[in-house]
Structure formats: structure tokens, C-alpha cells
Amino acid sequence: PEPVVLLIAVAASMVVVGNLSDGAFKTTAVLSGYSSGTTWLVFSAFTLSAAFVTTGLGKRIAYLLIGKIGNTTLGLGYVTVFLDLVLAPATPSNTARAGGIVLPIINSVAVALGSEPEKSPRRVGHYLMMSIYMVTKTTSYMFFTAMAGNILALKMINDILHLQISWGGWALAAGLPGIIMLLVTPLVIYTMYPPEIKKVDNKTIAKAGLAELGPMKIREKMLLGVFVLALLGWIFSKSLGVDESTVAIVVMATMLLLGIVTWEDVVKNKGGWNTLIWYGGIIGLSSLLSKVKFFEWLAEVFKNNLAFDGHGNVAFFVIIFLSIIVRYFFASGSAYIVAMLPVFAMLANVSGAPLMLTALALLFSNSYGGMVTHYGGAAGPVIFGVGYNDIKSWWLVGAVLTILTFLVHITLGVWWWNMLIGWNML
């Protein structure tokens, strides 16, 4: 498991650093990632996401959406869009979001509509499962806290390119291209592989689901209030002069004080603890590499062996396109970030590519680049494993949406990012 690998790497690094003859660094430098605010930001966000499951608020939102816009199978595709979009800012695990909240509800709807994996997948389940995955790969780059890998990726961008992007700045930059892709994704899938049924008795499904949940509980109401305050805190953190990680810690403490979650819920939050070990370790190692000027050395190597003089825009296009191609070979977004993001960032640094534009495009392509395959992220095997889909149709839809997203980002996205830079909003 990744946390075990990182613990071994941290231990080995501490031994090496501790035996350096010049004593330039203390062994505790390797552990600096565990005191990093970004590490605790993602851990706190995991606690917030778990609350949506334990309180039932996630289910309630889903059934309300089904009742409002789920009267057609195309409409059900947009239910996955709005549900994932609402949950994304507070759910740094798209596996937990798509696989733990959205999938069980949408799968039960598919079964209720007579769609079964073996006998009748194309009735509606085939379409809905692909919608869940392709949508979550879009929402995952729309918010800094929508995917744990975003935190690590931005830390590396900070270390290598010395760029700072706030929670609000990230959301603004990703907002326009992300919303466009969310609007077209269900439609593209629906057009390529139309489900056999078109109309849905959504009112009956929503009524049954809400009846099972009962009246809205006080814990759900408090969670909704805390969630809104968390979003406002993250969006306006720069204006308020409050660190984003401080907002996250305050939110977690507030939920514990109000009884929205218990300490037992926090202890049982396996995803949060795994991420704490993994990201704390890798952020510490990344910081150490930055201190020993590893990234500066790598930049010199690239500078002496590559010639992009006067072709910064071409370099930008090539780097982002390569990032998508390379992403195909990685089953883990985190592994891709650790192995390849520093390389692409260094290429941008020495090639004359516009740094802020390249940084944003790289931060976002990590997520949508994983659309192509059913193993491009941990949520993929969970959703694909339900059994409604075949590899050929999944990969074809994924390839079309990946290329479409890429084109939107390097055209409309670049225009939008330049506007934000001009307005001093990035």
C-alpha cells in the first residue's frame, strides 16, 4: 500500500540525512510534511466528506435532485453532475464521492428501472455508470479540495515554479472550462451510447428514497450550515487573512463539538488516515528535495539539453498534450504526480512556456487525463466492477471526452486564465 511505501521512504531518508557528515539538515526535516497545513487540510476535508455519509445528507440531496430533474435518463445523467458538483468541494476522495455516495444511489435507480449488469446493461445502467465516472474526473479538478492529489500537485508546483494559487483562485480558473464539460459530458455519452429507455418515474423513486430517510435531522441541518461556512471560508480566505488549512481544522473541530461526527467516526476514517501518512511523507520528501536544490539541478539538465527558444506557446501545447498521453500509463493519479509532474513543470520552466497557464493546465490534466481508461483512478475499478460496462465503449467515451476537455482547456481555458491574470485574480 502507498502509505507503507512512503513510511519506508521516510525512514530511509531519515537514516541518510542523519548520517550526512556536514549536518546540513536535521532528520526532522524529512517529517516536515506532517506539520504542513496542506496535509491537515486534506485530512479535515476527509472528515467533512464522511459526515455526508454518516448523517445521510448526501443521500437526501441525491433523491431531491432525482425528484427535480430525473424524469428522463438524460436527466439522470445530470443528477450525477449536480450531486458530484455539490459534494466535490468537501470530498477530497473521488473514490469515496463517486463510489461511496453517488454509485450506490444511482445503481439502485438503475436496478429499479429494470437494468441489470448481465441481462440488460444497455437499458440504462451502462450510460449511468459512465456518467458517474466521467463526471467525477471533471469535478475532481474543479476544486482544490475535490481530490487529494491536487494538494500534492500544487505543493510541487509551488516548489518548482514558485507560484501560489489560492482555493478561490483554483475554483475560478477551473470553473469556466469545468462547467462547460459538465454540461456536455452526459450529452456526449447519451449520444454515443443512448440508453434503451428514455422516460423515468422519478417522482416515485425520489419519494421512496426520501421516505426511507425520514424528516431532515438536526445533524443534517448543522452539517449543511457548516459546509456553507467552510466554502465561504475557503473562497474568501485571502480576503479574510485566514489560512485555508485553518478553516479546515476549525470546521473539523466544530463538527466534533456539535456532534455532527464523533471521534469514533474520525478514527474509522481509513481514507483520511491513509492520506495523512501518504501526503505527509511525500510533501516532506518534496520539500527536502527543494532545499537541496534538486529541482534547480534538474532545470539545468533540461536547459542544457533542450531547445525551445522563442517557441513558448508550442512548448505549452506539447507539454500538456504529453501529460495526457503519459497519464494513460498510470493507474494512480498520485503516482503520476510524483513521477511526472516535476518533469513537466521543469520542462515548462526552461522552455519559455507561460508558467501560470502551464501550471493550471497541468494541475487539471492530471484528473481528466484519467478518463481514458477504467483504471485511470481508484474510482474507475469500483464503478466498472459493477458490471454494466465493457472496456471498448468505456475507453472510446473516455478518449472522446479527454480530447474534448483538452481542446476546451487550451482554447477557452487559456483565454479565461489570461483574463483572470489580467484582473489580478490569480
TrEMBL record:
GO molecular function: transmembrane transporter activity
Cellular compartments annotated: Membrane
Membrane topology field: Multi-pass membrane protein
Transmembrane segment boundaries: 39-57, 69-90, 127-147, 167-193, 222-240, 246-264, 276-294, 314-330, 337-364, 394-417
Domain of life per record: Bacteria
Keyword list, A-Z: Membrane, Transmembrane, Transmembrane helix
Chief subcellular location: membrane
Gene Ontology CC entries for this record: membrane
NCBIfam families in alphabetical order: dass
Family: Belongs to the SLC13A/DASS transporter (TC 2.A.47) family. DIT1 subfamily.
Record protein name field: Anion permease
